[in-house]
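All the exercises in this workshop are built on plain-text protein records. There is nothing in a record beyond a sequence line and a structure line. A learned vocabulary of local backbone shapes supplies the integers on the structure line. The question running through the whole workshop is how a given chain folds. Here is such a record, shown just as it appears in the course material:

***
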Amino acid sequence: MSEPAIRFEGVTKRFRRWHASVPHTTLKSMVVRMWDPRARAPEPRWELLSELDLALEVGETLGVVGRNGAGKSTLLRLIAGIYRPDVGRITVRGRVAPLLELGAGFHAEFTARENILVNGVLLGLTRAQVRDRAEAILDFAELAAHSDAPLRTWSTGMVMRLGFSIAIHVEPDILLVDEALAVGDARFQERSREALTRRVRERRGTTVIVSHDTQAIRTLCGPVLVLDPPHARLHPDAESGLADHARALEALP
């Protein structure tokens, strides 16, 4: 049996709890903390995830749901290696393409073709592979007419469409999607959904989808992870996961 594409083993993630009485991390605050015993007290922290165990097999599509601030984007950043767990271990096998902040990593003075080359190489393709896919990337994003203009002349929506198209066309082993289905106009959103559906149905790779769109979760995902800080509950199917999520929302004060 093959190893899971993504494995969480006892993962806990904590964040600093900001308060007016807690000094910010500046040179001045560091000096104060050195000389003031009260300032050297442990910083208050809160757990967003607590002892999470999770194994996602190759080709599976995991849906992640939870209220705002529940840690959905944090979970994706942990998988992508942007964050590290405070406790536990995360193992990721394969090339990862994160659709977390579409357009992040683009250079405003570079043209679309130049940005495609840079981002494609960063995502693990060779220069030749990127060049072979450049036209398909531009065509999917419907941006071929603007391919030689610097990105500083583009709208935000155009940049986001280019980011989505690159991530889809590099065909990563693991695709992380954070609300990317809301990119662009209704026509582009539909094409994006179709592209993701093909990937999921053909099991081209492992996919993790964060979305408030329950229909997208129901249509695209198998298991669903419900985040209810600091707890995370894994359900084997979308219906039971969404029902759990709805109950958690109703229980909020």
